[in-house]
Design brief:
This protein is an alpha/beta fold and 415 residues long. It is built from 13 helices and 13 strands. The protein is globular.
């Protein structure tokens, strides 16, 4: 029975969790945990609600538990600021301070903010109450949120700004935080185009002089599996094959919108570009991408990417959305110096030709916990950014080059 339920509802549960987390990796992990818990309590399902409602109830509790866990990892003696998506302003200021800011706003922004944050009404409900459209209430709420963020950035007690919004807001929020001389953690991608990258680069170079760090959420390189894999592979030239069985996401979801999400290559495949660069210990110098279909669109999510590295390493990334959910979502292979390493879905690493090593196996670990623990430590004690900025820039440029390669049907050099 549970197998049939999984086939029917796993994608819907995933999309529900994606709406909560705005992060495909976390949503995937929480989906698996949801169904694990559903198996444990299937006998208690009485049919008083639909199966999907029941599953989403479990998923919401799993998400809240995970959220609390991540907040505990990130908590410091100082305030840590999180800038959330349009759903809510989620900050660690005292509620009284937030309400005071809202109280001082002009109408109609003040009314919209109260109805959204205090009464927890939907944008459609707010629009109905005050006689405006849902889109108008969204825009008005966003303006109010911007005012709150600007005030928070003035607070000297705020050390770190975390940006987990939709992708089109990343660049402007990164720039605001850097100019306020705050450390920044931004979920991938850093930005959506070269102009944004240029401005971030110029701003960050100045902010670095004051000890400010910028971290992009390329968590996989921090996984104990990735760390072990790099250690075993050594420093020689490598062939790397990385496959993301990314899964289908409906075309109307924002990640496919080039202006909002940037498409899944820029928005998601960049994870594996960074990971390959971590293993290569080098920078991408050229990119070639081919996509499925006779006339693939720029926002394709079925493509193969070839990466040529400065040190001679060669990497192939297969990003596919048309595979089976029953197959591993991610797989990485490294071939080097008569050794072969195979990482299966961040659960098992096997080594062939590796003296003294054959296998490493544990629960799924994509590096989130290690990444945030290291970030917390770095903010407390000071030091360099977790990922060299030149590497972040190179990965970002390489992701842009993927789309240019598809459009121009040729290799694109990465400067």
């Amino acid at each position: 029975m549970i197998e049939e339920i999984y086939e029917m509802y796993s994608r819907k549960v995933f999309l529900f969790l994606l709406s909560k987390t705005n992060n495909e990796d976390i949503a995937e992990e929480l989906t698996q945990e949801t169904f694990f818990q559903a198996v444990q309590c299937i006998d208690r399902f009485k049919g008083n609600s639909s199966i999907l409602t029941w599953l989403c109830g479990i998923a919401k509790n799993v998400w809240l538990k995970d959220l609390r866990k991540r907040q505990e990892i990130l908590s410091t003696n100082d305030h840590i600021q999180e800038i959330a998506d349009e759903k809510e302003v989620n900050v660690q200021w005292e509620q009284k301070e937030i309400l005071q800011l809202i109280h001082n706003m002009n109408e109609p922004i003040r009314e919209v903010m109260y109805l959204r944050l205090v009464s927890n009404l939907s944008f459609a409900e707010i629009g109905e109450i005050i006689g405006k459209t849902e889109n108008w209430t969204r825009v008005t709420f966003f303006r109010g949120k911007q005012k709150i963020v600007k005030e928070i950035l003035k607070d000297e007690a705020v050390d770190l700004v975390m940006i987990t919004t939709r992708h089109n807001l990343h660049a402007s929020m990164v720039l605001d935080a850097l100019r306020a001389e705050k450390h920044v953690f931004v979920e991938k991608p850093l930005c959506l185009n070269q102009a944004e990258l240029n401005e971030i680069t110029e701003t960050y170079r100045e902010a670095q002089k004051n000890g400010v760090t910028l971290t992009v959420g390329y968590n996989r390189r921090f996984s104990p599996f990735a760390v072990k894999m790099k250690q075993l592979a050594g420093s020689g030239v490598k062939n790397i094959v990385a496959t993301m069985n990314a899964g289908f996401i409906p075309s109307e979801v924002w990640v496919h919108d080039l202006k909002v999400g940037g498409g899944r290559i820029i928005g998601e495949a960049c994870h594996f570009i960074d990971l390959c660069s971590f293993f290569a210990g080098s920078k991408v110098v050229a990119v070639c991408m081919n996509a499925m279909g006779e006339n693939p669109e720029e926002n394709t999510d079925n493509a193969s990417i070839l990466l040529r590295y400065e040190n001679g390493t060669n990497a192939a990334i297969n990003y596919f959305a048309n595979g089976s959910k029953s197959y591993s979502k991610e797989r990485v292979e490294i071939y080097t110096q008569e050794k072969t390493l195979v990482l299966d879905n961040w659960r098992e690493l096997k080594g062939y030709g590796c003296k003294g090593f054959s296998k490493m196996k544990k629960g799924m670990d994509k590096g989130h916990t290690a990444q945030f623990a290291l970030l917390n430590d770095r903010i407390r004690k000071g030091g360099e950014a977790l990922i060299p900025f030149d590497s972040i820039v190179n990965t970002t440029k390489a992701s842009f080059a993927c789309i240019d390669s598809l459009k121009q049907n040729k290799w694109i050099e990465v400067e």
